[in-house]
Structure formats: structure tokens, C-alpha cells
From TrEMBL:
Catalytic activity, EC: 2.6.1.5
Pfam family, one: Aminotran_1_2
Name of the protein described by the UniProt record: Tyrosine aminotransferase
Organism: Bolinopsis infundibulum
Pathway: Amino-acid degradation; L-phenylalanine degradation; acetoacetate and fumarate from L-phenylalanine: step 2/6
Organism superkingdom: Eukaryota
A GO molecular-function annotation: L-tyrosine-2-oxoglutarate transaminase activity
Keyword Lipid biosynthesis: no
Required cofactor names: pyridoxal 5'-phosphate
Family, per entry: Belongs to the class-I pyridoxal-phosphate-dependent aminotransferase family.
InterPro entries assigned: Aminotransferase_I/II_large, NHTrfase_class1_PyrdxlP-BS, PyrdxlP-dep_Trfase, PyrdxlP-dep_Trfase_major, PyrdxlP-dep_Trfase_small, TyrNic_aminoTrfase, Tyrosine_aminoTrfase
Signal sequence annotation: none
Amino acid sequence: MKKTAHNGILNGLMRHPVCTSTIPTSPCADNTINPIRGLVDNLVINPNPDKPFLRLSIGDPSVFGNFDPPPQVIKAVADNLTTSCYGYVPAHGLVSTRSAIAKYYNTASSPLTSNDVFVTSGCSDALRIAMDCLGSEKRNILLPKPGFSLYQTIAGNRGIPVKFYDLDPENNWSIDLNQLESLIDENTAAILVTNPSNPCGSAFSVQHQRDILAVAEKHGLPLIADEIYQDMVYDGESKSFGELSEHVPVLSCCGLAKRWLIPGWRVGWLIAHDRHNRLSKVRDGLTKLCQVIIGANVLIQGAVPQILETVPQSFYDDTLKRLKSASEVVYSELKDCPQLRPFKPQGAMYMMVQLKIDQFEDIGDDMEFVEKLITEQSVFPLPANIFGIPNYVRLMLTVPEDILREACQRIVEFCDQHKAAVPRKISRIEVAP
Ligand SMILES: Cc1ncc(COP(=O)(O)O)c(C=O)c1O
């Protein structure tokens, strides 16, 4: 072979032994933990081959095809296909999209302009920029327990310390305000609240929202309000924290995923409610943080103005009516089961069911309950341990009624087959991490 400079380099390289050691990962990757994935990956999932597998675990309303987005949403995107630009747009969103969101959420008490809106890649991304902008390794954020596990994933990834305040199941999952206050210290950056709640399916009363704002105000703290289920309250009043706040700066995180039933289209937004101009630096920070991923999908965000304008109120009302009806089906199927205590939801798309663990013969906790339920009955609810509360399961409500009934009946049969003859003495209370 003719010797060339190129061959010479290759020959030189080949003399080195081939490196086979594993490439190390960074602390950032190592500390990015999604408890849901961790749980689902570790769970023994062996459904009973004789029974169809009924998954009530996934928080995705599109799974069963009975909660499809309205035609106006599809049309808005189709129309936008022909007019959409193909290039990059401002990382915090198209002006037309930000203006439309500002107009949609504008209230007399909280006037908004496009400058208050940051378009994001789903509500998750809005939460990421909010937590990133306020928290740091030295500045902690208070989180709800039980709560949506993504908050911990984001905090772990950034090294942001978190402290948990309790939601009280005996009191409509409201916040224990004294405990909340006791957690605040000079390094607290923000209080994060979720309303309506995943996983609890609860909605705070307006008075409770005011009380939470009063605690934040007393300590000069901003709220990060995860309001992805905003306006998804079955009965009664539904107000956002931004609308109610007179003095507390609120970063409200929302998006198309749940109310418009298109979680896979990945467009959300953050609205800065800021009556006293305390967020001027934060706005700059949020704008810069949007630049990390160079903004949200342009095709979908371009359709947002038409979506907000054209989807009729009847679509939202119908979704809520059907969610409420699904919750009533589950409640009526489970309420008389001696080993269970279902909690009636008031909003969002989930229902929490408490497991009276002492009434089971051979089940020690929610994880074991779910594993055995899958193996014997092929029903998969989510163990609420991953949300920080032991011995509850969370059921998804966007499931067709016949499947919901079938799942509930199998759960009741399972409980009966595993019931304790006399209540067991539980020697130690399992405490979720
Ligand atoms: C409380 C809560 N916040 C945020 C999200 C994430 O929303 P998105 O899909 O828009 O990122 C979810 C999704 O289930 C959620 O339940």
C-alpha cells in the first residue's frame, strides 16, 4: 500500500490499546431523578395473562382516545401549518402568542401584557425556568407533600435544596399553614403550590388561597404556582393565585397539556403576576433561561392565539362534566370496600384512594399492593409513595367508564381476597421518602 500521511496517522492511532472503560456521568445527570421512572422501572409488572391489562397509572388524557382535543385545536394547528415560519423566533415566545395568552388571562385585578408572558416547552419547562430563576444551591424552595414528582427532579438536577410542607387529607388536602411557615428560613427563595392538585385531585378554597398568599406576603416571598389544571374545578369557584394576589409576586405555570388535552404537543407558558414591580430582575432571568432551549415549538405556539379564541366554553364544560362523572363512578364502586377509602376529587383528573393497610392480611404497603394487584388482577394504579405519601394509590380518571368499572371491581375483589381476619397491628408507620 502506498504510504500517505493519512495512513501514517491511522497506523499511529491503532498502536494504542482500545479503551473500554465506561464513560463517567456528571453529578447533574446523576442527581436528575424522576421518581416515577425509578418506581415504574423497579416495579415488578407481571400482569395476569388471563385478564386484559388496565392501566390507570399514566397521567396522559390521550391514552384511551376518549378525551380527544376539540376540532378547533386541530384546525388551529392545520391553519398555522401554511402560515408558520420555519425559523427560530424569540426564545421566550412569539409576540402574537404572548399577547394572546396575556389577553386570555387578563383580569381587572391582575392586568397583563405580552411582557408578562414567557412561552415554554410545556408546563414542565415553565416550572424549570421558575425554579432555576429563584432557587440555587443556597436558596431553598418549599414543595407540597404529596406533590408532583417533577419538582424534585428539577431541584435535584440543579442542586436546589427543598423542604416539604404537608397537605392534609382530612382537611381537603389543604396546606398546614403553621407547618408551612415553620419551614421558611432566611434562605427560602419561594413557595411552590399546585392548584388544583396532582396527585390529590383537590382544589383549594379561595379563602385558603388567600391564606397561603398571606403567609407568602408576611415573609416577602414569591409563589411559584403550578396551575396546569387551572379552571379544571368541577364545581364552585376557580381562581388563579395571580388573580387573587394583591402584593405577592406569582409565577404561574400552565400550558396546553391538560385543559386542551394535548400533552404531547409540548407548549406551556409562565405568567409573571407582578403588581409592585418586584420581578424586574426575575423577568430578565426568565428570558435568559428560555434561551437555554431556544424556545418552544413554533408551529404549536403559533396556533395558540387561534386555540384560545376558538375553543368553545362547551368543550371545557363537557370535559369537566365527564371527569366528574368518572370520579363518581370510581367513588361509588370503591366506597363500600372496607380496606379502601376513596377521596372525592374536586378538580384535575386524578383520584386518591387510601389503603387501610392494617386491614390487609399480607400486604405491607402501597408498592406491594400495586405489584400484587397487577400480578393477580392486571390493574395498575400508581403507588402514591412516589408523590411522598405512603399507602395511597392514585387513579387516573380519563379512562372509559366500562374500563373504570371493571378496574374498580377487580380492585374490590382483590381487597376481599387479601383482607385480614382481624386488623393487623402495624408496628411501624411506613414513611415515604
Ligand atoms: C401538576 C403538574 N404540573 C406539570 C405537569 C407537566 O405538564 P406539561 O406536560 O405541560 O409539561 C403535569 C403533568 O402531568 C402535572 O400534573
